Automatic annotation (TrEMBL):
Encoding gene, per UniProt annotation: Dhrsx
Protein name listed in UniProt: Polyprenol dehydrogenase
Record function comment: Oxidoreductase that plays a key role in early steps of protein N-linked glycosylation by mediating two non-consecutive steps in dolichol biosynthesis. Acts both as a NAD(+)-dependent dehydrogenase and as a NADPH-dependent reductase during the conversion of polyprenol into dolichol. First catalyzes the NAD(+)-dependent dehydrogenation of polyprenol into polyprenal; polyprenal is then reduced into dolichal by SRD5A3. It then catalyzes the NADPH-dependent reduction of dolichal into dolichol. May also acts as a positive regulator of starvation-induced autophagy.
Entry EC number(s): 1.1.1.441
Catalyzed chemical reaction(s): a di-trans,poly-cis-polyprenol + NAD(+) = a di-trans,poly-cis-polyprenal + NADH + H(+); a di-trans,poly-cis-dolichol + NADP(+) = a di-trans,poly-cis-dolichal + NADPH + H(+); a di-trans,poly-cis-dolichol + NAD(+) = a di-trans,poly-cis-dolichal + NADH + H(+); a di-trans,poly-cis-polyprenol + NADP(+) = a di-trans,poly-cis-polyprenal + NADPH + H(+)
Pfam families assigned: adh_short
Species of the source: Rattus norvegicus
Length: 331
């Protein structure tokens, strides 16, 4: 009981610290959209693009001229989003493909459906996420934060890597962008905890752990890509505290703050998406990977996320659980 309370307080403390920094920034003039060149020749997959930060990311990438695959588990919303993007950015700007990250077989069929389009792939934005979702374990029996936020994206990235490699080249690399969270700072750096094999003290701690797992994964991916000279980079993005449905299952206090003070303390979904869009499209990041980005600048990642032994152990265990092969990066 005390352990659960302590773990939840640590996550709340991070949230409060981030919102205070955001408040100061807002009082000093606010957030500014990144200035980016048009890039009509790029294809991007954005997971969880049916609402929130993912929806804003998809819209903004399409405005830059990219073709966006809206990947999500809400078919109805997905088609609505595609219609909205197409109306704004043209008939070829967006397509919907069903992806349920809570099911490894759905991840595999998503990749088969994407391959059937014969499109190239320059950008993979691992954005979808759940927090305190009461739906229970995933179809494969993983704790939901672990399964949706981390393992689903781990398998997805492994299966899409051949397409990313084939579409990138030296001078214009493909990019894998993984949406993390400042809460990774209080995730417990223990593989059994990160994979839900030993239960987290509370659901918020499981969320924080899934974000730490994503950071460990992304940093190791970048190391492997660099070692092999692959034309792909991997970076981590922290959107800040954003006014989205992510908090739909949070406690009443958090929901009250979001409802009445969200306009002041939280970022809008567009503001929350700016770092993802920057990571996806900025020429300043050409060929650069292994960064943790917040507010379009490099920020500190938890030291444990750079622990090579922890990265390797998590990677091996995640391969075992998902069946990911990673042949393309020599694993
Ligand atoms: N909102 C914040 O304050 C905040 C802070 C830090 C990090 N993030 C991260 O930003 C990302 C986007 O979150 P958001 O704030 O836009 O929340 P959101 O709830 O508005 O959007 C989450 C998206 O993920 C999708 N999703 C959920 N379960 C899925 C599944 N099984 N398969 C496929 N897609 C699924 C949802 O349909 C939705 O499109 C998440 O990774 C979240 O952890 C958000």
């Amino acid at each position: 009981m005390l352990a659960a309370l302590w773990a939840a307080l640590r996550v709340y403390a991070v949230g409060v610290a981030v919102t205070m920094v955001q408040l100061l920034r807002r009082l000093r003039g606010g957030f500014r959209p990144p200035e980016l060149p048009l890039q009509a020749d790029r294809v991007a997959i954005v997971t969880g693009a049916t609402r929130g930060v993912g929806l804003s990311t998809a819209c903004q990438l399409a405005r830059l001229g990219m073709r966006v695959i809206v990947a999500g588990n809400d078919e109805h919303r997905g088609h609505e989003v595609v219609a909205r993007i197409q109306e704004e950015s043209g008939p070829e700007s967006a397509h919907f493909l069903f992806l349920d990250l809570a099911s490894l077989s759905s991840v595999r069929s998503f990749v088969r459906n994407f391959e059937a389009t014969a499109l190239p792939l320059h950008l993979l934005i691992n954005n979808a996420g759940v927090m305190l979702d009461p739906s229970g374990n995933t179809k494969d029996g993983f704790e939901r934060h672990v399964g949706v936020n981390f393992l689903g994206h781990f398998l997805l990235t492994s299966l899409l890597l051949p397409a990313l490699r084939a579409s990138g080249h030296q001078g214009r690399k493909s990019r894998v962008i993984t949406v993390c969270s400042s809460t990774h700072w209080v995730g417990q750096a223990d593989v059994a905890r990160l994979l839900g094999q030993s239960p987290a003290p509370c659901a918020l701690a499981a969320y924080a752990g899934s974000k730490l797992a994503l950071a460990l994964f992304s940093l190791r991916l970048q190391r492997l890509l660099s070692a092999l000279g692959d034309p792909v980079t991997a970076n981590i993005v922290d959107p800040g505290v954003v006014d989205t449905a992510l908090f739909a299952h949070a406690g009443w206090g958090t929901r009250a703050v979001q409802r009445f003070l969200g306009w002041l303390l939280f970022k809008t979904p567009d503001e929350g998406a700016w770092t993802s869009v920057y990571a996806a499209a900025s020429p300043k990041l050409e060929g650069i990977g292994g960064r943790y980005l917040r507010d379009e600048a490099e920020a500190e990642v938890l030291g444990a996320a750079r622990d090579l032994e922890l990265q390797g152990h998590l990677w091996a265990e995640s391969c075992r659980l998902t069946g990911a092969a990673w042949v393309a990066v020599g694993e």
